[in-house]
Amino acid sequence: MRPAVCALELYPDRLRLLDQRRLPLEETYVDCYSHHEVAEAIRSLVVRGAPAIGVAAAAGIALGVRQLRPEDDFPAAFAAICETLAQTRPTAVNLFWAIARMRACVERHQGAPLPELQRLLMAEARRLLEEDREICRRIGEHGLSLIPPRSTILTHCNTGALATAGIGTALGIIRAAHYGGRQVHVLAGETRPVLQGARLTAWELQREGIPVTLITDSMAGSLMAQGRVDLVLVGADRIAANGDVANKIGTYSLAVLAQAHRVPFYVAAPLSTIDANTASGAQIPIEYRAADEVRKVGDRYIAPPEVEVENPAFDVTPAHYIRALITEAGIAMPPTAETLAALQRAAASS
Amino acid sequence: MRPAVCALELYPDRLRLLDQRRLPLEETYVDCYSHHEVAEAIRSLVVRGAPAIGVAAAAGIALGVRQLRPEDDFPAAFAAICETLAQTRPTAVNLFWAIARMRACVERHQGAPLPELQRLLMAEARRLLEEDREICRRIGEHGLSLIPPRSTILTHCNTGALATAGIGTALGIIRAAHYGGRQVHVLAGETRPVLQGARLTAWELQREGIPVTLITDSMAGSLMAQGRVDLVLVGADRIAANGDVANKIGTYSLAVLAQAHRVPFYVAAPLSTIDANTASGAQIPIEYRAADEVRKVGDRYIAPPEVEVENPAFDVTPAHYIRALITEAGIAMPPTAETLAALQRAAASS
Questions:
Q1: What is the pLDDT of residue B345?
Q2: Considering only alpha carbons, which residue of chain A is nearest residue B194?
Q3: CB B268 within 8 A of CB B139
Q4: Distance between CA A281 and CA A239 in Å, rounded?
Q5: A102-141: per-residue pLDDT in tens?
Q6: With contact defined as beta carbons under 8 Å apart, do B148 and B229 qualify?
Q7: What positions of A carry a catalytic annotation?
Q8: Sequence spans of domains, chain A
Q9: What is the average pLDDT across B31-47?
Q10: What is the pLDDT of residue A192?
Q11: Contact predicate A255/A211, CB 8 Å
């Protein structure tokens, strides 16, 4: 199964990104030839979604190295390129994981001539992209076991083809269920302030004929109380070693509401989202974004232009709210330090 | 204390309404000379907020009767005027309560000549407006006892001078606390889809220098988890006899989140919001509004224009989530059939 949309295309000289800021009304592309352009695209949300950010960062490094000349100080220049990409967004750990992969590639080939390193890094970026596609496919396969034949699934933000290089994480499972003949109906929370649910998820699902109803984030509780939500399924930007999950702001509210209504709450994410170096959610750095994301929609102020605003892009859902974490290596049910470690061991030994 | 803004001004020949659709960027007024114009203003949200809708409807009836001629069939014309206003919005019971007050006025003066009825109905509408102002003042006084000296108060929608003829219900209490020297800080949920929190509450509070921070509705849970919300204080559109509360969509989610975090959840409303004829929340009619309220912000689509949408304007919060209901006659803590009936008896005998 191939999704009808594609967030990233990697060419030898550029990364072509679908400009997600302009969706759903305009379908335009941004070509990035340098690591600076990729960094700016990540920061400004041309591309977003934890796995897609990781792939874009790897591509950005390969493109940055491509522009180096033999007389440049490679170690210093490479470190600077990696640092430029590391500075874009603090929460999604896939970004740092992808940068570490590119660094490891250089370390494995220390002393190799520049053209060789350029070729190797571009190949590694391409490998990350292909791997991400395969990871999404497997997440979909594993997740399928958790989706009843007829299900109304509430999701948040966008975790689909626009957030990954493949069919998506949470939306990948929904795609797998839909194409596997289950009757799924998606309730897409609009996901203020940036409206990824309204602009991206509704658009992406509608294009493939997957039934979707758009709601405001504030409607979730009421729909659960009416028994109209069978399960909640979201993605993740970083998962602490104990299973706590940082994800798009509003995820925590949904998890608490789901528990209060005995609705199962699932998280889907690649293993690269698990950060073994972060003990619990309390240590996950939360990105605060510009106040105007809340004060404005598009170019239009919807609030007094100078009103004080709080704008965390993410919140943390403690592991005990999560019935299961679905990864490419299988399902951690429930996610705990032990079940997560077991999945990672299984993946390492396979 | 007089609020810095005024939603409704009743003149002998017209009702002047602050056009709340255009706030906060434009401060313009709509003059309604007929009951048709008032009905359209209520329907299109030029004026909103349960108590303000009630006052506007009473004024609309007085203006409709003002345009009758001696040769008209008064009972039929009066019934039609009342019906036009009753058809505007189904949930806020203050609308029906106000219409009933105007009908009772006519019944008390059956057979009176038209000029006399015109004078009496305009006086009754003015009385409702003045009463609402006084009710808000008393709600503020009673509610003050529930506000600690330093409090961060989460509120939803708009319950202030823009929703009433006075200082407001929930915002009336916040005003009373602020002007009474308490240090209150308001967290205003933006209240998608119509954004009354962002457009109205943030604007209204900022104009009076009451500290306010605007948040998206999805941030409430995370802020409660961080211990940053001392209490939740909202209004009501209809309260069933058992204490269940219909209020702006999203209220129920806040109530469940508040209970999960042991944050007190309070409702402020005039006694006219209590509907003795509705046994429980399940019987309250919920208004569903146009899909484009969710698909668009202002003139701009933020979602695929043809995506399916769910758009209930209200939800129902069961009484057991509510620590107290604050009315002009005192506090029902917790609201139950018994405590509500006791308040109404107290009010009737005073």
A1: 93
A2: A302
A3: yes
A4: 8
A5: 999 999 999 999 999 999 999 999 999 999 999 999 999 9
A6: no
A7: 237
A8: 8-137, 139-349
A9: 98
A10: 98
A11: no
Q: What is the pLDDT of residues B279-294, one digit of tens each?
A: 999 999 999 999 999 9
Q: pLDDT averaged over chain A?
A: 97
Q: A7-22 b/e with 16+ CB inside 10 Å = b?
A: bbebeeebbebbbbbe
In terms of C-beta density within 10 A (0-12 exposed, 13-18 middle, 19 or more buried), how is residue A77 classed? middle
Q: pLDDT tens digit string along A266-298?
A: 999 999 999 999 999 999 999 999 999 999 998
As a whole number, the mean pLDDT across chain B is 97
Residue B299 clears pLDDT 90, i.e. is over it? no
A79: CB partners within 8 A, 6+ apart: none
Chain centroid to CA B52: 6
Terminal CA-CA length for chain A: 24
Model confidence pTM above 0.95: yes
Does domain B139-349 correspond to CATH entry 3.30.565.10?
no
In chain B the first and final C-alpha atoms are separated, in Å, by 24
- Residue B221 to residue A312, Cβ atoms within 8 A: no
Class for the domain spanning A8-137: mainly alpha
Rounded to the nearest angstrom, the minimum Cα separation between B28 and chain A is 16
Q: Is A206–B253 a contact, with Cβ atoms under 8 angstroms apart? A: no
Question: How many residues would you count in chain A?
Answer: 350
CA–CA separation, A168 and A90 (whole Å): 21
* ipTM rounded to 2 decimals: 0.96
Pick among B228, B292, B294, B302 to test the A interface (most A CBs inside 10 A): B302
pLDDT at B252: 98
Q: Do domains B8-137 and B139-349 have the same CATH topology?
A: no
Residue with tokens 């009315």: B327
Q: Which parts of chain B are beta strand (E)? A: 8-11, 14-18, 29-32, 150-155, 183-189, 212-215, 231-234, 238-240, 245-248, 265-268, 274-275, 296-297, 300-301, 308-309, 314-317, 324-327, 330-332
Supply the angle between the helices A114-143 and A50-66 in degrees, to the nearest 10: 170
